[in-house]
Specification:
This protein is mostly beta strands and 178 residues long. The chain has strands at 4-7, 11-15, 19-27, 35-37, 39-42, 51-53, 58-60, 66-73, 83-89, 96-97, 102-108, 114-116, 131-135, 143-145, 166-168, 174-177. The protein has no helices and 16 strands.
Length: 178
């Protein structure tokens, strides 16, 4: 009887910079000969900027029931949304193709931390104050941060302020409220 080959799981999620993720390919039963399975890679992540992957095909040695495809997950230091590495098994040699035969590896995107550059400041009347909002790392998309205003000064008698929200442009790490 010819064994069936498939992925042990249809998906998994790892954090960016985790190091290495492994995708397990399994046989329904051990074979007396090596089983080779070609695979293709697609998805929204970019090789080599976001990941590196072991070469196709994956081989399961005679007498074994599993082998792994290794994915090196790169920490690029850029805040970005989740990205995917989709691995699809092709026609195997020495086995028949089962399901799941597509594995989606999701690389959880980095989310930057937003804060004020300073907790407080003092200015004289008649002076324009600039309040800097900053990100821990640049983002590949604009970051919009709503804010509220309170205190003892009144608007417009004592001050006027930029409208909420403040937006930090993609690729930048700061924006200002005046």
């Amino acid at each position: 009887q010819v064994p069936v080959v498939n992925f042990a799981a249809a998906s998994q999620t790892v954090s960016e910079g985790v190091g290495t993720a492994t995708i397990t390919v399994q046989l329904s039963s051990a074979s007396t000969q090596a089983v080779t399975v070609p695979f293709t890679v697609s998805g929204t992540a970019t090789n080599p900027a976001d990941y590196g992957i072991s070469a196709s095909p994956v081989s399961i040695a005679a007498g074994n029931t599993t082998a792994t495809i290794t994915v090196a997950v790169v920490a690029d230091g850029v805040a970005e949304p989740d990205e995917t590495v989709i691995v699809t098994l092709g026609t195997p040699t020495g086995a028949t193709l089962g399901t799941p035969n597509v594995h989606t590896l999701t690389i959880a995107g980095q989310v930057p931390v937003v804060n004020f550059a300073a907790a407080s400041q003092t200015v004289s009347e008649g002076v324009t104050a600039t309040i800097t909002v900053q990100l821990s790392s640049a983002s590949t998309q604009p970051v919009t941060v709503p804010f509220t205003v309170s205190g003892t000064a009144t608007n417009p008698a004592d001050y006027s302020i930029s409208a909420s929200p403040v937006t930090i442009a993609a690729g930048n790490t700061t924006a200002t409220i005046t």
